[in-house]
Give the backbone structure.
Amino acid sequence: MKAVLDGVQRWRHELSNCLHSCIGVALTRHGIDALVVLGSRWQFYYRPGDLRREEYFWPCPPGVSLAQTLMPYHPISSRWHQPADAAQGWQQVRERILAGEPALVAVDNFWLPFRPAYQDVHSNHLVAVYGFDDEADLVWINDGVPPAFDGPMAGKHLDASRDSDNPIVHDRDLFFTANPIGNKWLSIDRDPDAPAPPDLATMLRTNVRDFLDPEPVDGYVGLGGIEAFLRDSADRLAIGEAIAEETFVVAGTAVASAALHASALRALASQHNNPLLAEVALAVDRVAHHWTAIRILVNTIEQSEVDRLRYRTDQLMADCGRALAEVSRVADALAQEGQQTCRPRFTASS
C-alpha cells in the first residue's frame, strides 16, 4: 500500500525549534495561520526536575496538555502517544496518515541521512511523517529545521531513528541524548468543541496578567519566575554546580515564546495596518535576544564569572518589564478602539 498526503508544506521560524516547525506543518495544511496560533501566547513556565532531554521540550504545568499550554487561545488539541514497541508505533503512525493527518514523530538524528548529525551525534528530534510506500520501503518526511528536508527516505532509517536508545557515545552528544526515543509521536488536531479565539486585546491582556499576576503553580512562572530561575541558576553556578544544560534548554523555550510572539505581532501589524503592534513587537524581540545571549553565556561561563550572568539577568528583567508595559498599553488602546477591530485571523485565507 502507498499513501502520501497532499498539501504538506514546510514551516519554520528561525528562533523556534522542531516542535513549532512540526506543529506549523500540521496547522498550515488546513489553512490555519500557524504564526498567529503559535505566537499569540507569550509565557514563561518551568518546573524544576521536569527537564527532558528532547529538542522539542516544552514545559507544561501538571495535567495541562501541550496545546493548552502553547496554543491556549485557539481550538487546537494535542496528544502524545507512547506505543508499547516499534511495531505498534509504526502501526499508529501509518493509521494516522491513512486517516488524512501527518504524525509528528520523535527520532534520533543519528540515524537520519538528511541530518548533519547522521552517524555522528545522537539527538532527540521531531519530524512530520506524511506518507509511506510499503512495497518500496519509503516514508515521506518533512523537517523544517536547517538544512531542511522534504521528501521520501528509506523506511529503515525512520525505523532505526524512532526506536533508538539515543545513547551518549562521546562528548558531542549534548543536551538531547541519554533519553530513549521510544517510538513516541504527537498528534495535533483542530478541536471542534473549543470556543472561537478571543480578540487580540484579550489575548494580550491575558499574557500580561499571567506574567505579572500568575495563577499559583508548582514551579517558576511569569516575570517573577524568570528572575527566580535565573538568580537561582547564578547561585548554583557560584557554588560550583553545573547549570549549562538546564539553563540552556529552558532559555530555549523562552527564546521561542518571545520571538514567535514578536513575529505574530509584526504580522498582525501588517494585516491591520496598526503601527502600535509593530512598535511593541520590537520591544518583545529585544527580550528574545536577551534570552539568546543567556543561552550562549551559560555554555561558556566559568564559576568565577557568575556576575556576568547576574548582570545579564538584570538587563533581561528591565527590558522584559518595559516590554510588558508596552504590551499592556497597546492592549488598552485596542480595547478602546473596539475589540472587533483587531481580531487575529485563525485561518490564513479568511
Summary: The first strand starts at residue 2 and ends at 4.
